[in-house]
Amino acid sequence: MKGCMEKVQFLKYAEEAYYNGSLTIKALSSGLEIGACNWNILSPKGNIIYLSGSVFASATATSFDYKALERSDVLLYSDFTACNDVDGEKNDFPPATGSSYSSNIGSCWETIPESWLDSDEYSEEMEKVSFICSCALDTISDGGSVLIPIGRPGVMLQLLENISLSLESSNLKVPIYFVSSVAEELLAFSNIIPEWLSSQLQERFCSGQPLFTHIQLSNEKKLFVSPAIHSSKFLTSWQEPCIVFCPHWSLRLGPVVHLLQRWCADPNSLLIIEERADIKLALLPFEPMSMKVLQCSFISGIKLKKAIPLLKILQPKHVLVPESLRPHISCWNPKFSVHSFSENETVVVPKLKTFADMDIAMDMASELLIDTKMIQGKNIARLKGELLIEQGKYRCVLRNKQVLSSQVRPLLFLGRVDLDSLLMALKKMGMKVAAQHAQNTDGSENVSLIFISEPNEALIEVTSTQTTISVGDETTASLVSEAVRSTLVCF
C-alpha cells in the first residue's frame, strides 16, 4: 500500500502534469465534490476527455468547468447517473425520431448550460439539507441521538454547518462528534484549498472569514473530533443525546458498527444514510431495528435530459458512452460518432489524426528549402537532429545546439517487430510463451498474439502498424519492453 501511494502525484486545480513526455494531463472541476475531477489528456495525436459524475451547481465545490472540455477528439462519458434515468424516462424521452427532438429543443441548446448553473437542483439540495436538519432536531428533542455515516465530504460539511446553526437557533445544547481516522486531516484540508470551493465560499475566503464553521465549533467545545471511539478524547467527552458523523456508509466497518449496535433498539434515535437499493440487507445484522431510518439522495451526476444537450455543447468528434445510453443518443442523429462500452470490453476508436504535428527549430527550418526531393508526388527533406517529445509535443532540434531540459527524457524507439526474434528473446529471459495468429474482427489486418504465462501473465499483440503490450506488474513489463526493443528491425 505504501509503495502504491508513493506513486500518487498530487495536482492543483487545472495544473498540467506530464507523463512520459507524450501526455499532458490536466484536472478540471466536476462540481460533484471538493476535489472531484474531470480529466483532459492531451497527446501529439489528439486529446481525450474523461467526463465523470458532474454537477452544474454545488454549495461547496467549484462549479462544473464544462467549457474547458469543448471540442475534444474523444470524450469518454463515464457519468452513470443518466443510466439510472433511462428506465424511468424511456417512455417519454427522447422522442422516437431525431428530427423531432432536434426541431423542438435544438435551437436553444447553445445557451442552456448557463441557465443550468442556477437550476432548481441546487434549491432542491438545500431543501433536503433543511429537512434533514429538522429531523435531527426533532430526534434530539425526543431524547434520541443522530448517527450520520455519509461518506461525501461536501455533504458532510454542509450538514455539519447547518445542523450546528439549527441547534443554536433552537437553543439545544448537545455535542457533535466527528469520529474518523482522517477526521482532523479532512477538516484541515477543507480550509486550504479555496480553488476547489464554490464561489460563495471563495468570497468568504477573500473577506477573511472562515470557510467552514468547524474551527469555531471546536473552539467552543461544541464539536469533538476523534480518530476512534476508543480514544481517550472521545471517551472523556462522550455525552448522550448527541449527533455523530462517522464512517462507513456500508454499515460494515468503522465506528458506525459499534454505534448502531448501541442505538438500534432505541426508537427515539435516528440513522441518516444515503438512499440505496439494499437497505434491508445493510440493516440485517442490527435486527430487530427499532431505530428510525431516514434515507436521502443527493445529486450524483448529470441527468439524462441534460446529458444529451451537454454533448451538443461540447461538440466532441467521438463519444464513448455506457451501452444503455447509446440508443438514446444515437436516435438524436448527432454530428459526432457514438460508440458504446461495457465492462471488460476493449473499444477501438478511429484514428484521431493520420499525422502528428512537430515543432522544428528555426535553425533547422532553412534546410527544408535547401535539400528537398520529390518522391511519389511528395516533397521529402532529410533533417539531421534530435527528435524529442516533451509536454505532449514532438520537437526536432539540432544536437548540442539546444538547451535541453535537465529532466531525464524518455527514449523513443522506431521499427518493426520481428516475431521470431521476439519469441526467442523472451524464451532466453526464462519466460514461458506461446504464439497464435489471428485476424481482426473486421478482417482488416492480421494479428499475432504472444501469450506469456510464466513468471507472470502478459499479452503482446503485434500488427503491421502497432504493438500492444498488456501486463500487470512492472518487472515483467520491463523485461518485455527490453525484449521488444532488442528485436526491432529499423526501417
TrEMBL record:
<dbReference type="GO" id="GO:0005737">
    <property type="term" value="C:cytoplasm"/>
</dbReference>
<keyword id="KW-0963">Cytoplasm</keyword>
<protein>
    <recommendedName>
        <fullName>Beta-Casp domain-containing protein</fullName>
    </recommendedName>
</protein>
<dbReference type="InterPro" id="IPR022712">
    <property type="entry name" value="Beta_Casp"/>
</dbReference>
<dbReference type="InterPro" id="IPR027074">
    <property type="entry name" value="Integrator_9su"/>
</dbReference>
<keyword id="KW-0539">Nucleus</keyword>
<dbReference type="GO" id="GO:0032039">
    <property type="term" value="C:integrator complex"/>
</dbReference>
<dbReference type="GO" id="GO:0034472">
    <property type="term" value="P:snRNA 3'-end processing"/>
</dbReference>
<dbReference type="Pfam" id="PF10996">
    <property type="entry name" value="Beta-Casp"/>
</dbReference>
<dbReference type="InterPro" id="IPR036866">
    <property type="entry name" value="RibonucZ/Hydroxyglut_hydro"/>
</dbReference>
<feature type="domain" description="Beta-Casp">
    <location>
        <begin position="156"/>
        <end position="279"/>
    </location>
</feature>
